[in-house]
Design brief:
The protein contains 17 helices and ten strands. The protein has 380 residues and is an alpha+beta fold. It is globular and about 55 Å long.
Amino acid sequence: MQPDHQSAMTEQNSVLIGNPFPWYDQMRRDSPVFYDAEQQSWMVFRYEDIKRVCTDWQTFSSQVPQPSEQVDLTQSLNYTDPPKHQSLRSLVAKVFTARRVAELAPRITQITHELIDKVQGKNRIDFVQDLAIPLPVIVIAEILGVPVEDRADFKHWSNGIILSDPTALQYMGDYFRHLLEQRRQNSGKDLISDLIAAHEAGETLTAQELVDFCILMLVAGNETTTNLLGNTLLCFKEYPEAFKRLKREPELLPLAIEEVLRYHSPLQGTERFTKVATQLGGKTIPAGQMVLVWIGAGNRDETQFDRPDEFVIDRNPNPHLSFGNGIHFCLGAPLARLESKIMLSAMLERLPNIHIEPNATLEFIPSMAMYGVKSLSVLL
């Protein structure tokens, strides 16, 4: 462990938010696996090591060793290992098959154009608040069966959960307990009703797992897509020639989205817990330790990517780690890609001159794990 790296995490935390990439480069080079005493966790920065941690669930568990009394979310898909993980995943995977997601395209397109209708003709809008937040929130709320009037609360709680606010988690947990009770008495055509039916048909799903499922779907289903859309505009601000090229060659959009995911990944880091002592990057990590993998660092690893610190709009192949790897590969990846493709296609067509206001102040989400801006003033 090198003391200067230690201080980088503590004293310069605010500097790292918004631009952790020079720190990632230094750590990949000098301390690719190191122990941070303050956070009491091991940090991992190289692509191959990150991939191994994400894939080898027998060694690197997703299960929180000692969940606190506030148990909401600890029973969700993200925090379970096989065999429980498979049974939970198979339940919700039915909703996120390629076919089921493709069937959502007309509705996503409709929502997108309704949102653009509201801003068309204006000179200046907040891209995050007006377009990037509402689209994924409306879509995931409709999938779950959350009433329209509750969506603003959901966004508020979801933001709180990302920032580790236990009150927000409690409110959302209580809300879903109430909604699940309502659906038990009056089921509908939505994911919550499907989960209740599976639960009552004897699938191994506890009441707590039902609640955690709903929380995870809502948070994961909107935060990442919102940031992916906002981060696309950040990339185009930095690389205006890439945006001009995309307008000339709109067929590049799927590759452009993958490159945004690599270059400015909405999820920068995630954690695992060692079940047994293991070797990683020449270090011995004891059992029972937290391991933080910096996905954003792996996505810029020069051993995997040519010109890793450049946004290359037609990069192909692009084996980024932004949706994870192995058994926890993001179930919602097809939905996030589809929502982004539809929104960005509509923008290219209907808002072709969109650009970030030249003197706009960028306020980043105050989290090392998530990368995105709270708001984004754009000129149309």
